[in-house]
Amino acid sequence: MRHVYIRGILALVWLVAAVVSGMSGNLEMVVLYVLMGGVFAYTAAQGWRQAKSGRQEKPNRQEESGKQERPKR
What we know:
By secondary structure, this protein is an all-alpha fold. It contains three helices and no strands.
């Protein structure tokens, strides 16, 4: 879940950079910053939805390989 928060924060940073760049008049970079902020926001939202639905659970290694663990002596 930590990666979702990090992506969200990075999205905000990119969008703030777009606003600052737009205010300074560098409109070429505004497009890049808005695009980067949008991508990070989209991936954060997708990760949030997956975490809420529980689809992000990882299978057990034993189930993955199909082998049973040897009993300990």
